[in-house]
Amino acid sequence: MQRRLEKDWELSIGPDTVRLFILKAKALSAAVNEDYAGGAEHEVELDGEAHANHHHDGLAEESSENLTEEELRELINDLNVDEAAELVALAWVGRGDYDAAEWVDALAAARERANKRTAKYLLGMPLLADWLEEGLEAIGA
Asked: Which InterPro entries does UniProt cross-reference here (predicted)?
């Protein structure tokens, strides 16, 4: 397999910025998946007098999860149109909708669908962090 040395494109969004999004998306995913991993870890146990003796810090957990999601949402909303389109195109390349050779097409499609709901769209992707990582790797950034 030959690797191209020259690129036909240049990212407006820095790869380090994308990596920050990846870290935030992983933290968000971990916060959500943590509750489901063990299955029984949040069950309430009752003693003989039928009182709940389980301490659940649900509000703190929920607040932490929402903070991470809100931070990521704000970061995405702060991107300019080109950067937001590139982030969407990277996710599509990472997901396999396009390959790296089709970067120009992926970017054009992402620009066509650009709207104020980019953050909602991206945060709705279940494997956003993985897809962004794979997209960066595919284009060699």
From this structure: DUF3775
